[in-house]
Amino acid sequence: MAYSKHILITGGAGFIGSHVVRHFVQKYPEYLIVNLDKLTYAGNLENLKDIESAPNYVFIKGDIVDREMLQQLFARYGFDGVIHLAAESHVDRSILNPLAFIETNIIGTVNLLDAARHSWGDHTAGKLFYHVSTDEVYGSLGETGLFTEETPYDPRSPYSASKASSDHMVRAWHHTYGLPIIISNCSNNYGPYQFPEKLIPLVIHNIKHHKPLPIYGDGQYTRDWLWVKDHAAAIDLIFHEGRNGETYNIGGNNEWKNIDLVEKLCDIMDELLGRAQGSSRQLITFVKDRPGHDRRYAIDASKIKRELGWQPTVSAEEGLRLTAQWYLDNEEWLAHVTSGAYQQYYEKQYRERVQSQ
Ligand code: NAD
Ligand code: DAU
What positions carry a catalytic annotation? Predict the structure, then answer.
């Protein structure tokens, strides 16, 4: 079949990437979707089981640090668009092992930019390199204020510094080589298929197994949470209707202090598990803080709302319930991703935090 577009999605076996791949494969049967993923600890093909045999879907296992492989892939598929999500994404891991973040997030992004540039040359009409980034590049907010697209960059962890670097590289390839690009910077996502190293799935998993719920520092740190499928819908809109060279902030207008969010999850889980209300809250344990912990993130998403008509559709109450229920219904998925290497990471990360409290 002749497809109207060939689209490369990187990191499509991860949390957000799998939602984006599913969204595009199902909504656009006229597009060929090629998912390139290294399948690190965070990449899991089980996330895509329901669409793996769709005729317009191809999976390729590969590392974006491998320049030659990328050039061959572009030559083979003649991509019209790239949606780049592949990254090392966990702040705590970036503190333990920054180099992996430099390699994938910076070098890998530059390799992809170069592969697109060489493949497209001067024929850039209808082409787009779309880079998916994070609100963490803007640094940390005080009690008030919101990140806008004009907020100066101030990354403070190895993860956010590597993502900020990659954003700068993408803009440099636009200004210097004329590559058509768009960047979006999104707040914290939650929902099905998130690896249980991140706060919400970790807490759900631990409540279920009567394990301590580790709260870093005083628990007053604030994040702006967005239902992952609302992010996938925003990526679709931006990919099709965003303006070349622009940046769009995406956020849920849904701020929670960590302790309040964890208490809310405790109450939802008590209800779903038929436990006495208040019992899971007793598992809350304050532990040593994350070094360099950003105090507050909050997004001003008025540009994407105004220009592209995007809105978040799922409320916190609904999204947290759906998420908790999904993890309860998908024990096998959780068992697979929490075996082996993840267990070792978990023991190391939290043994040290509790001992030095
Ligand atoms: P994730 O860690 O769940 O998934 C990352 C995926 O990238 C995995 O499938 C992994 O195998 C793949 N990958 C890693 N290194 C690779 C490499 N060298 N080559 C090819 N594939 C590689 O991450 P996520 O939470 O889904 O985040 C996806 C993107 O969205 C990232 O760029 C992240 O910075 C950004 N983002 C995430 C959030 C969030 O809340 N999770 C918010 C805003 C932006
Ligand atoms: O803001 C967008 C970013 O959100 C993304 O770019 C990152 O890829 C994603 O991991 C996420 O980063 P955070 O550091 O905000 O997410 P995390 O789930 O790791 O932590 C959320 C908050 O909860 C943060 O303030 C740290 C705190 N926390 C986290 C864990 C894992 C705890 O208190 N205890 C924990 O055990």
Answer: 135-136, 159
11: CA distance to ligand 1 center in Å? 6
Does the global pTM surpass 0.90? yes
Which of the ligands is closest to the CA of residue 16? 1
- Give distance in angstroms: CA of 194 to centre of ligand 1: 10
Kindly give the distance from the C-alpha atom of residue 40 to the centroid of ligand 1, in angstroms, as a whole number.
Answer: 10
Measure Cα distances from 247 to 5, 83, 300 in Å. 23, 14, 12
Question: What domains are defined for the chain?
Answer: 5-190+225-250 (3.40.50.720), 199-222+255-288+314-350 (3.90.25.10)
Whether the CB of 157 sits within 6 Å of ligand 1: no
- Whether 63 lines ligand 1, by a CB cut-off of 6 Å, is yes
pLDDT in tens, the chain (357 residues): 799 999 999 999 999 999 999 999 999 999 999 999 999 999 999 999 999 999 999 999 999 999 999 999 999 999 999 999 999 999 999 999 999 999 999 999 999 999 999 999 999 999 999 999 999 999 999 999 999 999 999 999 999 999 999 999 999 999 999 999 999 999 999 999 999 999 999 999 999 999 999 999 999 999 999 999 999 999 999 999 999 999 999 999 999 999 999 999 999 999 999 999 999 999 999 999 999 999 999 999 999 999 999 999 999 999 999 999 999 999 989 988 887 666 777 787 788 777 666
CA–CA dist 36, 19 (Å, integer): 14
Which ligand 1 atom lies nearest to the CA of residue 89?
2
